[in-house]
């Protein structure tokens, strides 16, 4: 295998991992605050539809990305009002959000099916991007890829190095206790849900603007669900989200390359690899943490209504 | 006062005219598994609905339900049957059992189920010989490939897909017996991201022409981006890749749908199975583009020969991968063999997933 081919495969692995990283980081923050939002797929597909529509109308990829974030946030706000404000069941509301998102995106994107536009521009640093072996991988990706990696660092820093992050994690572990300290439980949870929606929308717009630059209904094809699994796989840690996304994306891409190069591996088995890896990781994690209890935020999925 | 009289008269007129008109018109319903705007499978079925309205103006009234999940289709089909439809087209394989169930409850309504194999006195089935189009594509690919390697993105190892691969390869071998076919199974009908990755992998392995049996335009776009060539799927996808699309195998149900509606109207409709190909106009190849004139001429002639029966994609001798004879010289593969194909023809260097 030539160096260029290896580089090309690694670059596509990173590109396949990017939407998973962005969406999973958003969900991670929401879950760290104690809110389980199963509507990632719905918010993502709305981000893809509106992101593409806005980019076509304005001609700007950035405007498209912002519209994608806005679409995700709008749906997340609805979810937040229901689950955080009115203490509705999070699982049911999240599933409803996915169904709503798939429908709404089809409606909003109906006029944009079959249009095409140039993919988001790739970085080109004179000299660096042409370096043999690593140039395209490190210095020739599109903006979304760098944004995803920066986001991972930022989320990690926020959760473990800032007071606000500490409060958010505390709320996810014990909402009642943090409430009795006078902290705004519902406010923080609502913002965390909004952040999760924004990230899901951005991840969706990456799909329709950079990864496969067109809009077609249901084009997320289950990536929102993979992002949800990824958060659990990563045991609610941003760095592990990146690692897991590369593993998930890598397994998909590598099995396709293995088939194309004629290595006789059964495709179905390789397609199932990410899920087998998740189960294995969960088993290992629970074995390692047997006495420490679950790694999940303690109040995950539980609604909170303050006593008046 | 005047106005009340007028509206009363109008109302009476409508009451009189209403039922009479409804009897004149045949109400036709369509059930689709995907969105009509998918520019693929469901889009093509909806084109036939529109063609029906144009062909019989004033005589038919059509309704469609899109995005009907296969698991929930019985309710949708029954809803149409209840609303006075005379003829209902259910257009996805998964609608088979629900269609039969509803058909038992509404014996006077005629049903048409696409791509299935179970029939009833008021249920017909219809499908198309897509493999004929793939044979033409194989010939074009073999003529145009500079690397001698063609990539094929496949969905699931079911007979329809396998017979498509075989027909493609047989077409290619009739031009270049040494052509290599690289096959990637993506295990999905629709996932633009994964289809694009498969396209990238095949192009990186030296394929310079792509063929696909999945539903999104992503592989075409990837070929366009890299300056390579590709075939579209289900409908004409030229708009996605004007520099890459060679042709596309288009499902054309228009003629069939109009014929069946007319049969219901004149009372000659009877339950039957239709498996039409290029000859019947059910399989159409989109305009041949991005190829030199001689290749285009060859492709057009092949289409003509398949239509006339001079060329049969599965005409013997056809050998299986391991060298055993599948179809003897001078014979052609019978339909049941094509409908149940679960083996590769000789020359394909891939192991069929089981």
Structure in words:
The complex is a heterodimer of chains A (308) and B (354). With 308 residues, chain A is mostly helical. Chain A has one domain: ABC transporter involved in vitamin B12 uptake, BtuC. Helices cover 71% and strands 0% of the residues of chain A. Chain A is built from 12 helices and no strands. Chain B is built from 11 helices and 14 strands. Chain B starts with a helix and ends in a 15-residue tail after the last helix. Chain B folds into 2 domains: 2-128, Rossmann fold (3-Layer(aba) Sandwich), CATH 3.40.50.2300; 130-251 and 282-339, Rossmann fold (3-Layer(aba) Sandwich). Mean pLDDT of chain B is 88; it is low at 1-22. Chain B has helices spanning 2-24, 41-55, 73-82, 96-105, 130-144, 159-173, 192-204, 218-225, 254-266, 293-308, 335-339; strands at 26-31, 60-65, 87-90, 110-114, 123-128, 149-154, 180-185, 209-212, 229-234, 245-251, 273-276, 283-285, 318-319, 325-327. In chain B, the strands form 3 sheets. Chain B has a 6-stranded parallel beta sheet, with helices on both faces. Chain B has a 6-stranded mixed beta sheet with strand order 7-6-8-9-10-12, with helices on both faces. In chain B, 40% of the residues lie in helices and 19% in strands. Chain B is an alpha/beta fold and 354 residues long. Classes of the chains: A mainly alpha (308), B alpha/beta (354).
């Amino acid at each position: 295998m030539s160096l260029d081919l290896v580089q090309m495969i690694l670059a596509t692995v990173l590109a396949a991992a990017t939407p998973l990283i962005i969406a999973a980081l958003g969900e991670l923050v929401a879950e760290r605050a104690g809110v389980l939002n199963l509507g990632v797929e719905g918010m993502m597909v709305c981000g893809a539809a509106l992101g593409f529509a806005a980019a076509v109308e304005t001609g700007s990829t950035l405007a498209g990305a912002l519209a994608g974030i806005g679409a995700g946030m709008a749906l997340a706000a609805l979810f937040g009002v229901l689950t955080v404000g009115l203490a509705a069941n999070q699982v049911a509301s999240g599933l409803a959000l996915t169904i709503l998102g798939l429908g709404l995106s089809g409606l909003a994107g109906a006029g944009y099916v079959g249009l095409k536009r140039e993919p988001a521009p790739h970085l080109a640093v004179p000299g660096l991007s042409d370096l043999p072996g690593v140039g395209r991988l490190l210095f020739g990706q599109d903006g979304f890829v760098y944004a995803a990696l920066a986001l991972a660092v930022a989320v990690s820093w926020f959760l473990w190095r800032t007071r606000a992050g500490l409060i958010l994690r505390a709320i996810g572990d014990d909402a009642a206790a943090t409430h009795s300290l006078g902290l705004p439980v519902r406010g923080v949870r609502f913002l965390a849900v909004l952040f999760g929606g924004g990230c899901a929308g951005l991840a969706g717009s990456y799909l329709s603007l950079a990864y496969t630059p067109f809009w077609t209904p249901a084009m997320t094809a289950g990536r929102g669900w993979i992002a949800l699994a990824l958060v659990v796989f990563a045991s609610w840690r941003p760095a592990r989200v990146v690692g897991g996304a590369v593993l998930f994306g890598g397994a998909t891409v590598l099995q396709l390359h293995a088939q194309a190069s004629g290595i006789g591996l059964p495709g179905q088995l390789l397609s199932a690899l990410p899920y087998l890896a998740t189960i294995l990781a969960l088993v290992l994690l629970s074995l390692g943490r047997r006495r420490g209890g679950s790694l999940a935020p303690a109040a995950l999925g539980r609604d909170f209504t303050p006593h008046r | 006062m005047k106005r009340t009289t007028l509206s009363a008269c109008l109302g009476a007129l409508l009451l009189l005219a209403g039922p009479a008109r409804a009897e004149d018109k045949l109400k036709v319903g369509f059930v689709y598994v995907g969105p009509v705007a998918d520019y693929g499978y469901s889009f093509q079925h909806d084109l036939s609905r529109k063609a029906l309205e144009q062909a019989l103006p004033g005589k038919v009234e059509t309704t469609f339900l899109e995005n009907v999940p296969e698991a929930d289709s019985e309710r949708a089909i029954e809803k149409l049957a209840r609303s006075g439809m005379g003829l209902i087209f259910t257009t996805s394989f998964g609608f088979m059992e629900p269609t039969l169930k509803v058909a038992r409850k509404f014996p006077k309504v005629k049903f048409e189920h696409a791509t299935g194999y179970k029939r009833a006195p008021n249920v017909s089935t219809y499908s198309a010989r897509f493999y004929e189009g793939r044979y033409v594509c194989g010939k074009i690919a073999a003529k145009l490939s500079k690397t001698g390697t063609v990539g094929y993105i496949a969905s699931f190892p079911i007979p329809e897909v396998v017979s498509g691969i075989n027909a493609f390869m047989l077409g290619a071998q009739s031009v270049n017996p040494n052509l290599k076919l690289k096959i990637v199974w993506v295990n999905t009908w629709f996932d633009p991201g994964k289809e694009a990755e498969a396209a990238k992998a095949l192009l990186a392995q030296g394929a310079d022409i792509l063929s696909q049996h999945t539903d999104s335009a992503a592989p075409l776009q990837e070929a366009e981006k890299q300056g390579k060539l590709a075939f579209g799927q289900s409908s004409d996808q030229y708009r996605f890749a004007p520099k890459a699309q060679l042709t596309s195998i288009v499902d054309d149900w228009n003629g069939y749908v109009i014929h069946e509606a007319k049969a219901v109207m004149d009372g000659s409709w009877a339950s039957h199975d239709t498996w039409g190909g290029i000859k019947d106009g059910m399989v159409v190849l989109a305009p041949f583009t991005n190829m030199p004139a001689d290749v285009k001429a060859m492709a057009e002639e092949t289409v003509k020969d398949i239509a006339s029966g001079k060329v049969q994609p599965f005409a013997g001798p056809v050998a299986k991968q391991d060298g055993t004879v599948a179809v003897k010289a001078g014979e052609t593969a019978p339909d049941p063999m094509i409908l149940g194909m679960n083996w590769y023809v000789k020359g394909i260097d891939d192991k069929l997933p089981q």
